[in-house]
Design goal:
Length: about 220
């Protein structure tokens, strides 16, 4: 099974690693990938036939390996089963429009949270969003709008993120927050009002127990 670690890069010294996270994806940690790609949908030029796509802008792969393609300019969603020569329209495909059997290049954004200074965004496996609010110095979970980390005012002690920038949520729903100005990484276990310091917190420099200019990435 694969292991996902958070890597924190500093301007000085080696990167810092948070404890590995083991996702339930069924992929061996020593897996290697074929360097030769295989076409699974389209490749017959731009068009509207079922073996063609026209500006595909999104896709999803289900547990059976079927590929669902957002075929933008054909206003349809097309499903390609493994080894299929042509796709099957599963949504739209009846021209551009607003009827129940049509799609219409939907570009109407929806505002779900207002009056928030969003510095970072993460999503858990259930589809809930975690937003770092730079003005309230906390992490908000949406759609419940509950504060799950911080909101003890601006400061430098353990439970007061000075500048909650990046946010990450692991498989146990623990919230990891990169406090950029305080040069530290904090963890809030689910339901906890107290955080755990997992990296930094000793000022900015190149000593082994310090961070400086934190950047955020993930490693599989």
């Amino acid at each position: 099974m694969s292991k996902c670690s958070i890597v924190l890069f500093s301007r000085y010294g080696p990167p810092n690693y948070l404890p590995p996270i083991i996702p339930d994806d069924g992929i061996c940690e020593s897996v290697t990938w074929n360097t030769t790609g295989v076409t699974v949908a389209g490749a017959h030029g731009a068009g509207s036939e079922l073996n063609e796509l026209n500006s595909p802008l999104g896709l999803f792969v289900d547990n059976e390996g079927a590929v669902y393609v957002v075929d933008t300019w054909n206003d349809r969603i097309v499903k390609w089963t493994p080894g299929a020569y042509i796709g099957k329209v599963v949504a739209g495909g009846n021209g551009e429009g607003n009827a129940n059997n049509q799609l219409n290049h939907d570009d109407h954004d929806q505002t779900i949270i207002v009056n928030i200074a969003c510095l970072g965004l993460a999503m858990n496996h259930e589809g809930s969003l975690y937003i770092s609010d730079g003005e309230r110095h906390c992490i908000i979970k949406w759609p419940s709008n509950n504060v799950v980390a911080g909101e003890n005012g601006e400061g430098s002690d353990m439970n007061k993120p000075l500048e909650p920038a990046h946010v990450f949520v692991d498989e146990n729903q623990s919230v990891f927050v990169i406090d950029f100005q305080s040069a530290k990484v904090m963890q809030w276990p689910v339901g906890s009002k107290e955080c755990i310091l997992v990296a930094g917190g000793n000022g900015e420099d190149d000593v082994a127990n310090q961070l400086n200019g934190i950047k955020y990435s993930t490693m599989m």
